[in-house]
Amino acid sequence: MGRKDASTVKLPVDQYRKQIGKQDYKKTKPILRATKLKAEAKKTAIGIKEVGLVLAAILALLLAFYAFFYLRLSTDVDPDLKPDED
């Protein structure tokens, strides 16, 4: 039927394709590395959105403290009382 060594013999076209594939991989390897580094830097960098959220949280916290102390320390002045009366 078929020879055992027939499956192990590679066609010249397959060898050529394999060689071209290796050459393309060698060409694109630095490009892939640069793309990977760029994506890594983008992932770890602090963005404007995060900075804005942190500033908004700090501002809200300060506003809450201010409102709390303003309401606690403000004295109610009764207009019917004279300044020398308690």
From TrEMBL:
It is found in: Endoplasmic reticulum membrane. It holds the Pfam family TRIQK. This is Triple QxxK/R motif-containing protein. It comes from the Eukaryota. GO terms for cellular component: endoplasmic reticulum membrane. The gene is TRIQK. Belongs to the TRIQK family. The chain crosses the membrane at residues 51-71. InterPro entries: TRIQK. It is a single-pass membrane protein. Its main location: endoplasmic reticulum. Keywords: Endoplasmic reticulum, Membrane, Transmembrane, Transmembrane helix.
